[in-house]
Amino acid sequence: MLLNVENMSCQHCVNAVTRALQALDATARVEVDLASKQVRAHGQFSADAVIAALADADYTATLISNDG
Questions:
Q1: What is the pTM of this model?
Q2: Which distant-in-sequence residues (6+ apart) come within 8 Å of 12 by Cβ?
Q3: Is CATH 3.90.180.10 the classification given to domain 2-65?
Q4: Each residue's pLDDT expressed in tens, for the chain with a length of 68 residues
Q5: SS3 36
């Protein structure tokens, strides 16, 4: 899935977002692009679960595409 995460600004944000998603699925593949403020995630989780996990970590995410 591809998400927009507006309030990411640094490497700490990249690590926090990655940890939040890997807490849902330890084998998840998470790719963060700070420049575009987008996150591509592949794992055993729903978009709602990802958005909620990011909200719990203080990041606002919106789903762009649920491509698998």
A1: 0.92
A2: none
A3: no
A4: 999 999 999 999 999 999 999 999 999 999 999 999 999 999 999 999 999 999 999 999 999 999 75
A5: coil
